[in-house]
Design brief:
chloroplast; eight-stranded mixed sheet; plastid; binds NADPH dihydro-nicotinamide-adenine-dinucleotide phosphate; photosynthesis; binds Protochlorophyllide; Prochl_reduct; NADP
């Protein structure tokens, strides 16, 4: 579903694609080079980091943002309240907890005839207090199913579109986190991320004939989220190893800072939601506002200097970006390959 004009048929739209303005045109009378508007797809742009990034990019006037969201009305309202002007965004429906929806989104996107210059895999869910697992439409534990498997299928299906983009720097960005990295203090707060030997993932994460957890252990919602972030960071690196050289696409991940006020913590107990922002502001000093985090991710989308591929970006306290070190598990190439191969099977690509 798209908020703007619906295009009548695929054929007509494909014809439009062929006529797309090249990325760099000599449009001005002085013959000065100008760059067309880039198109960026951001999943989960209806709140938090995704919305703040959409806002930061829209304000430059250089980007058209496809807000890929599960709640169409919420996304439209969020875009309006963030002051996005109509010509800078389109809301399109995407529910990452359904592989059919992911495929439908990809078809719908292709039908718009727009080039794809940057894809940002940002959406996530976190169930820290859940006693029992819940599942996606396809029967995968919901946090790994949404945060990792939905994005894995989406990125794989859109890779060719990225490849075909003639934009000067095309990018695939998968949002990671410090809490999946056990080489940090935050990553050592129990329960720690650990994918183990991937036996639960091999079994389908369905909680029936296998565990709902990647490592095959007992269900723990907070661990499932952190495991999903490890998958996100491993996937970015595996994409880099498999495709960077041939396609020129920049693959990147990042830790945007602790955005303690977002909807990510909606399922947490009220006391946590009350104390978490001041704890991060005054004790760990890891707090970052939604606006600031949006500027950070917007840099990874559009900064001409951030073209290095295979990098996990972080920011220091002056908000300067630097290449950060991932934990041993989150940089394990063998594990990355195995997660890739198992994920391919689960989403029906192999
Ligand atoms: P929010 O909850 O504010 O945003 C998450 C977004 O994901 C929402 O737009 C939500 O949609 C969307 N979403 C959830 N499930 C689905 C689904 N099935 N299909 C499509 N969209 C979905 O959280 P944040 O902004 O904090 O999180 C954004 C990213 O930042 C995540 O990847 C998270 O892991 C990462 N991150 C966050 C940190 C923090 O401190 N907050 C720290 C480090 C990383 P809806 O609005 O409909 O609920
Ligand atoms: Mg954590 C430098 C210390 C630091 C940082 C940057 C974070 C970020 N956290 C830090 C430290 C601690 N945290 C310490 C010492 C504790 C024990 C009191 C602690 C606890 C804690 C909890 C209970 N922290 C949390 C939780 C959560 O539920 C959040 C979480 O794990 O979500 C998955 C969380 C977070 N701490 C962070 C960040 C960025 C999060 C949340 C979001 C995320 O990783 O996506």
């Amino acid at each position: 579903m798209e908020s703007k004009q619906r295009k009548p048929s695929v054929g007509a739209i494909r014809a439009q694609t062929a006529a797309t303005t090249p990325a760099i045109t000599r449009a001005t009378p002085e013959g000065k080079k100008t760059l067309r508007k880039g198109t960026v797809v951001i999943t989960g742009a209806s709140s938090g980091l995704g919305l703040a990034t959409a806002k930061a990019l829209a304000e430059t006037g250089k980007w058209h943002i496809i807000m890929a969201c599960r709640d169409f009305l919420k996304a439209e309202r969020a875009a309006k309240s963030a002051g996005l002007s109509k010509e800078n965004y389109t809301v399109m429906h995407l529910d990452l907890a359904s592989l059919d929806s992911v495929r439908q989104f990809v078809d719908n996107f292709k039908r718009t005839g727009r080039p794809l210059d940057v894809l940002v895999c940002n959406a996530a869910v976190y169930f820290p207090t859940a006693k029992e697992p819940t599942f996606t439409a396809d029967g995968f534990e919901l946090s790994v199913g949404t945060n990792h498997l939905g994005h894995f299928l989406l990125a794989r299906l859109l890779l060719d579109d990225l490849k075909q983009s003639d934009y000067p720097s095309k990018r695939l960005i998968i949002v990671g986190s410090i809490t999946g990295n056990t080489n940090t203090l935050a990553g050592n707060v129990p329960p720690k991320a650990n994918l183990g030997d991937l036996r639960g993932m091999a079994g389908g994460l369905n909680g029936l004939n296998s565990s709902a957890m990647i490592d095959g252990g007992a269900f723990d919602g907070a661990k499932a989220y952190k495991d999903s972030k490890v998958c996100n960071m491993l996937t970015m690196q595996e994409f880099h190893r498999r495709y960077h050289e041939d396609t020129g696409i920049t693959f990147a991940s990042l830790y945007p800072g602790c955005i303690a006020t977002t909807g990510l913590f909606r399922e947490h107990i009220p006391l946590f939601r009350l104390l978490f922002p001041p704890f991060q502001k005054f004790i760990t000093k890891g707090f970052v506002s939604e606006e600031e985090s949006g500027k950070r991710l917007a840099q990874v989308v559009s900064e001409p200097s951030l073209t290095k591929s295979g990098v996990y970006w972080s920011w220091n306290k002056d908000s300067a970006s630097f290449e950060n070190q991932l934990s041993q598990e989150a940089s394990d190439a063998d594990k990355a390959r195995k997660v890739w191969e198992l994920s391919e099977k689960l989403v029906g690509l192999a």
